[in-house]
Design goal:
Elements lengths: L1 H9 L5 H12 L5 H17 L5 H21 L16 H6 L2 H17 L4 H14 L3
Helix pairs in contact: 2-3, 2-4
Length: 137
């Protein structure tokens, strides 16, 4: 009976966000130090913000973070060593669904990521695109 209770607790859907959170942080051990620090900070902040979110926001939140967890686990070896590139680009369908606030958050995240990784090409490309949109055709 005790094993059955433990199994029931293990698959408790109310605890799934905690398991997901811990799994993501565990996977981040395989990332470079700067990416791990930034990723851990971002994950902790996002999960704290969604702790008291309305149910209609929780399901997509959990779905997207589960997808991230699965993708990252496929990109890391069992020893936690990077295999090729980490992450993937957002597809255009998902980008169109994002609010302006979320797009701004993504831009800020990308700029911070590039700073931590010693790159500034994204910010430079963003400035070029912004300037070209402002010029009359």
């Amino acid at each position: 009976m005790k094993a059955a209770q433990q199994a029931a607790r293990a698959i408790n859907p109310e605890r799934f966000p905690l398991y997901l959170y811990k799994s993501i942080l565990r996977l981040h051990y395989g990332l470079p130090a700067q990416a791990r620090l930034m990723g851990d900070t971002y994950v902790k902040d996002e999960f704290k913000r969604h702790k008291t979110a309305k149910p209609e926001f929780v399901k997509p939140f959990i779905t997207e973070w589960t997808n991230y967890c699965v993708m990252l686990s496929k990109q890391l070896s069992s020893a936690g060593i990077r295999k090729g590139n980490i992450g993937k680009d957002l597809d255009s369908d998902k980008m169109e669904q994002l609010s302006n606030e979320h797009i701004q958050q993504l831009v800020e995240l990308r700029v911070e990521a590039d700073k931590h990784m010693g790159r500034d090409d994204f910010l430079q490309n963003l400035q070029n695109v912004t300037e070209s949109r402002e010029k009359p055709i």
